[in-house]
Write a structure and sequence with these properties.
alpha/beta; disordered N terminus; five-stranded mixed beta sheet; single chain; 9 strands; two-stranded antiparallel sheet
Length: about 270
């Protein structure tokens, strides 16, 4: 093969890889598109708030995480090791997208995702089920995270679902959300009003974050294309357009898991000295 033909092929492969990993849509738009036509099958979990999995109706009105111990345990070295298994039905390229999302947490937190072992009691099983979804927090045993091959394999979507698995809910369900957004239930699809319930979320002392990767976009669950959420007091603030975790997402994760940010190397790195 000539060098020029090899270069063209390499560019085509690179562009295909980037297409599968990045999107012009926000995280919440990707998830809504992937999940809008899901028909629940027997044995599959129910979905609330678009992509949060629950096993029965009893969990619908109670936060399945803060009502019990939902954190993953910390090791004696200060790291939180979370075992995972990536199903074999993903291609090597798809697995690399998922792996990049898993590894991104180690760059700013004490979270360390590692391949599961036969001795692990609790682990995440990352599979291509119908749509993008996750349970909230550690549930015990095998815990499915769904990243459908047909619409969920983006870096930011992987981060979003993993944050659910780590114990976090959506930003618009925060108990203090009425001070920051106005929910317009008259524009919400009938039967979907429960997606805007308020719960005791794990805010970890961080302010409401319109740019959180866990914040849904203005017209989420809209029946008429009109906004279902409007920022207040400034209605023009960008809402739900995150394409990756925000600084507040990272802060609340580090706070929940008590990740130490005081290491001298980290302080020097923050100051741009290393």
């Amino acid at each position: 093969m000539s060098p020029s033909r090899f270069s063209v092929l390499a560019l085509l492969l690179l562009s295909a890889y980037c297409w599968a990993e990045e999107s012009d849509l926000s995280v919440s738009e990707i998830i809504e598109n992937a999940n809008k036509n899901i028909v629940r099958r027997e044995g599959e979990p129910m979905l609330i708030e678009g992509d949060i999995a629950i096993d029965n109706e009893a969990e619908r009105n109670a936060d399945p995480c803060t009502s019990r111990g939902c954190k993953w345990g910390k090791n004696t070295d200060g790291k939180v090791y979370i075992p995972y298994y990536i199903a074999n039905h993903f291609s090597s390229r798809e697995k690399s997208i998922i792996t990049r999302g898993l590894e991104s947490f180690s760059s700013f937190s004490c979270i360390r995702f590692r391949p599961s072992r036969s001795s692990d009691r609790d682990w995440l099983s990352i599979e291509s089920r119908d749509g993008c979804w996750s349970y909230v927090g550690r549930r015990g045993g095998k815990q499915t995270v769904s990243l459908n091959r047909g619409g969920c394999l983006y870096h930011n979507t992987v981060q979003h679902e993993l944050l659910h698995a780590l114990g976090f809910n959506h930003e618009q369900t925060r108990s203090d959300r009425d001070n920051h957004i106005r929910v317009l239930l008259e524009n919400v699809v009938s039967g979907m009003e429960h997606n805007f319930r308020k719960i005791a979320t794990l805010n970890q002392g961080t302010p409401y974050d319109y740019g959180s990767v866990m914040q849904y976009f203005r017209t989420a669950f809209s029946k008429n294309g009109k906004p279902t959420m409007i920022p207040i007091p400034n209605a023009n603030v960008s809402l739900g357009n995150a394409r990756e975790m925000s600084s507040n997402d990272k802060k609340r994760l580090n706070s929940l898991y008590q990740c130490c940010e005081c290491h001298p190397h980290n302080q020097m790195k923050d100051r741009g000295l290393v």
